[in-house]
Amino acid sequence: xxxxxxxxxxxxxxxxxxGKVTIHLNAEGEVDDAxxxxxxxxxxxxxCEGRPFEEMTIIxxxxxxxxxxxxQLASAKACDAILGVDIPxxxxxxxxxxxxxxxxxxxxxxxxxxxxxxxLLGWDADPAIRNVVGVIDRFPEIARKGIRLRKFGQEIINAxxxxxxxxxxxxxxxVINSLSTDHRDTLLNGFKEAYETTHIALxxxxxxxxxxxxQVKQFAAFSSLYAGLVDKDGSPDMYDGQMRIVDQDGSxxxxxxxxxxxxxxGEHVEPWSYLKFPFFKPHGYPDGCYRVGPLGRxxxxxxxxxxxxxxxxxxxxKLYGNTLGGCSLLYHYTRLIELLNCLEKAxxxxxxxxxxxxxxxxxxxxxxxxxxxxxEAPRGTLIHHYWVDGHGIIKKxxxxxxxxxxNIAMNRSIQLVAKEYIHKGEVKEGxxxxxxxxIRCYDPCLSCSTHALGQMVLxxxxxxxxxxxxxxxxxx
Length: 476
Ligand code: MG
Ligand code: NI
What we know:
Blueprint: E1 5-9, E2 20-25, E3 31-37, H1 44-48, H2 56-59, H3 68-83, H4 89-121, H5 132-138, H6 140-161, E4 170-171, E5 174-175, H7 181-188, H8 191-211, H9 213-218, E6 225-230, E7 242-246, E8 252-256, H10 261-264, E9 265-268, E10 277-280, E11 290-291, H11 294-300, H12 307-320, H13 330-350, E12 370-377, E13 380-388, E14 394-400, H14 402-405, H15 407-421, E15 422-423, E16 426-427, H16 431-441, H17 446-450, E17 458-463, E18 469-475
Parallel strand pairs: 6-11
Antiparallel strand pairs: 1-2, 1-17, 2-3, 4-5, 6-7, 7-8, 9-10, 12-13, 13-14, 15-16, 17-18
Helix pairs in contact: 4-5, 4-6, 4-8, 4-13, 5-6, 6-8, 8-13, 12-13, 15-16
The structure holds magnesium ion and nickel (II) ion.
Magnesium ion (MG) binds next to strand 14.
């Protein structure tokens, strides 16, 4: 490109995984474009070909060391569809329970470890202390509670999967372990503290949003579509339901059976990123930009299925409604409302009469040549789609991860921040923190997208018009 300058930020710190941002300036030094690059790729879909479908729940956990439970569940659902079976009631309850454990640990980790340094210590605090260690130092009690809440989610996973990471639990036709009454009773004792901690976190974010309302309205705020699975009442359903797409006003644009996703979701390819750009087909690319994850789900919903979360959701809608619902910083509030919702759902599941039953798996032979499994993972909608031959061998696999759905939106968010902070080639103080903060709203799992774990170091490279590196900044 002629007459352009490139600023590179690489890698992004305090995100799960590895990524790079480049800012492209025009001749006047104004922002022309900003890109969030995914530069690594392991070709997982190809890797699945030739494998027996019943191995997929184990294989696909290796996609990501951060989200193995989510991949396992989406995979098991796709396999159930190939078997053409409805799994036993208790198997479904237990899958939902481990899913809630994953939400609790993931959302707690995000808020207390990744987001709270910005909120509690301030965007412009010294990066040397603006991290979880800084939070532990200044707010030891909050940090301690956050760590315990995350641990509670892990204990739910542990009680079922037996291991905290890569539990071999959900399989085609059900699950492999039942829940003991001892484990159930122990877990039920943990809810009082878990709710208290979640309410502390909710108070932190609500106060912060209230104090920083002007910034919230301005920061990476844009209109988009929103997407998520909803139950028959229109409340977010993390495990099942219909896929709903709403516009910025909250009007339902489309509701469809998840197995029809190919009719409505296209995947655009850009040469500079290995991560595709899913879009809502009827609106085209890039206008069909939709957001998934907490903001997507809570904007798509018209209620919540549990009382504590419903109360918070009503507050969220009253305060921010559909006009402000496009503000990326509201991800932090909606994520915590979901945390509350998932705690309530987990408690309800544990109190279900049949949760400790041993009727947890059925065996069957494959009857269908393809199967789609969709769940709402903590970061957003996760799709596993397999095609098999007559022997149940995978012919083709299509996976769309949550971070993919949000790809257009994350790029748009970075562009907006860059346009606010860079003028005439001058980068305003605090820019890097805001770029990181904009991406962090979405809690992208770069590990899911690239299948690689990265180091947390931040590097900025500024190039002149001729593409020569003129400045390099680095912080660790
Ligand atoms: Mg794919
Ligand atoms: Ni992941």
